[in-house]
Design brief:
The chain is globular, with a radius of gyration of 25 Å. The protein is mainly α and about 290 residues long. Helix content is about 70%, strand content about 0%.
Length: about 290
């Protein structure tokens, strides 16, 4: 009886713990959202509860009226979309052959790639290389230098090793080459890992800030995070036109800018989440 009671009590305690943990993680996002939706005057004197006492969209109207914000959105979308595609192509192209034990010189190649995960050339040598390649002040500087993550590649290699070799051998017996096998067999079976790694790359590209500061000097090519950084500075907010009626609460501008930067990723994540629960046998031949 006692063991049966413990079996019923354990899931209940576990679920309560996860709910509390979820609330702890969700509260900062909720606070930022409610702060940005509150009237700046009331938010400035801490008259803020779990919901706005005085609802206002004036902060969002100001933030969305800034032309440089849309320039940052455009550049960040370009970097995120094309940078993620480049990263996925290179990561898959490296992980698939390295997952095959029959690859010649596999160990030395893998050791060289793994070495780059532990050591890098440093900021100054990297900048000099990018400058010699004429990528300074171009969006390529934000996509190519960090195109491949060795950690993500290791995840893909581990996943590819788990795919039954019988499928690949059967395809080779039918005359399929490696490219056909990769495109028509491996990738359909790898929907879950591709979505996961793709989302990791996309979030990293979207939130990338330091390379945008180092390699981009033209204001028309600045990414969203760099633009938002200028908006989040107290001294820059004080000089912004149209902010005289919000001068008492520059924090409202900061909160609204944070929400604006999060919305695109929050919209994409639920779409990709469905791929996380799919198994490895997606698209496999039955029988």
């Amino acid at each position: 009886m006692k063991r049966h009671r413990n079996r019923r009590l354990y899931p209940l305690v576990l679920n309560i713990g996860f709910v509390l943990l979820g609330l702890i993680m969700f509260y900062p996002f909720w606070y930022v959202l409610m702060f940005s939706l509150s009237d700046p005057t009331h938010a400035s004197v801490n008259k803020l509860n779990l919901y706005p006492e005085h609802f206002s969209l004036s902060t969002y109207k100001y933030v969305l009226s800034q032309k440089f914000l849309y320039v940052g959105f455009r550049n960040t979308l370009i970097v995120t979309i094309f940078g993620t595609l480049i990263s996925m192509v290179l990561t898959i192209g490296c992980a698939y052959p390295l997952a095959k034990s029959s690859l010649r010189w596999r160990s030395p190649i893998f050791s060289i790639i793994f070495f780059t995960m532990l050591f890098n050339g440093g900021l100054i040598p990297t900048y000099l290389v990018i400058k010699q390649l004429h990528m300074v002040d171009t969006l390529w500087a934000l996509m190519l230098p960090s195109a491949v993550s060795v950690y993500n590649m290791l995840i893909m290699i581990k996943f590819y090793k788990g795919i039954p070799t019988e499928l690949i051998e059967s395809a080779k017996m039918d005359g399929a080459n490696d490219l056909f096998i990769l495109l028509r067999i491996i990738l359909p079976l790898s929907g879950a890992v591709n979505a996961t790694i793709g989302l990791i790359y996309a979030v990293a590209r979207w939130n990338e800030y330091l390379p945008g500061i180092i390699y981009i000097h033209d204001q028309k090519k600045r990414v969203l995070q760099v633009v938002l950084n200028g908006m989040l500075k107290e001294e820059s907010l004080a000089n912004q036109p149209g902010l005289s009626d919000m001068a008492s609460s520059p924090e409202s501008i900061k909160m609204a800018a944070v929400v604006v930067s999060m919305v695109p990723i929050l919209l994409v994540y639920p779409y990709l989440q469905k791929y996380f629960v799919k198994g490895m046998l997606i698209g496999s031949v039955k029988g």
